[in-house]
Specification:
With about 180 residues, the protein is an alpha/beta fold. The protein folds into two domains: about 5-50, Translation initiation factor 3 (IF-3), N-terminal domain (Ubiquitin-like (UB roll), Roll), CATH 3.10.20.80; about 75-155, Translation initiation factor 3 (IF-3), C-terminal domain (Translation Initiation Factor IF3), CATH 3.30.110.10. The protein is built from four helices and eight strands. It has a four-stranded mixed sheet with strand order 2-1-4-3. It has a four-stranded mixed sheet with strand order 5-6-8-7. The chain is rod-shaped.
Length: about 180
């Protein structure tokens, strides 16, 4: 008759019992006998309400999923002859996307004879890199594909907040002043 190590419903070690006795103990309490470590010798089983356990596990998974942000790729399209106001307007939108933790793809499209002046497109891309250097880094450097020049920027990692900046100016080991 195989034996199992049993952990009670309150987390206490019950001991090594025959499988039949462990099942009877779980059924007497109206709970389930769940194998938690099959590879150990003897296998470890826990007395628990398995339905409630699965429900709480699912609840935790949904809560974790609710708090995470799925990064998206947003695109900002420009032309080589873009005016200052239009450039600023699109840059503000790109900054908002980056602050919302989304990647931004900048595309400069050349039409007709504009393809002969690709240097204008590179100047726009360079100014975008300089203007957004405080919130983003370049993930994919500028490259030309046909009549488009594109670059992808990704948000900078959020800086962790450290608690090393103490106020008060005294030593922790010093006794309090009376």
């Amino acid at each position: 008759m195989p034996q199992v190590r049993v952990i009670g419903d309150d987390g206490s070690q019950v001991g090594i019992l025959a499988t039949r006795d462990a099942l009877a103990m779980a059924q007497a309490k109206g709970l389930d006998l769940v194998e938690v470590a099959a590879t150990s010798r003897p296998p470890v089983c826990r007395i628990m309400d398995y339905g409630k356990f699965k429900y709480e596990q699912n609840l935790r998974a949904r809560k974790a999923k609710k708090n995470q942000h799925q990064m998206q790729l947003k695109e900002v399209k420009m032309r080589p002859k873009i005016e200052d106001h239009d450039y600023d307007f699109k840059l503000r939108h790109a900054r908002a996307f980056l602050e919302d933790r989304d990647k931004v793809k900048f595309t400069v499209t050349f039409r007709g004879r504009e393809i002969a002046h690709q240097d204008l497109g590179y100047k726009i891309i360079e100014s975008i890199m300089q203007d957004l250097a405080d919130v983003a880094i370049v993930e994919t450097p500028p490259r030309t594909e046909g009549r488009t020049l594109s670059m992808v920027m990704t948000p900078k990692a959020a800086k962790p907040v450290t608690g090393s900046g103490k106020t008060g100016g005294g030593s922790e080991d010093a006794p309090p002043a009376n």
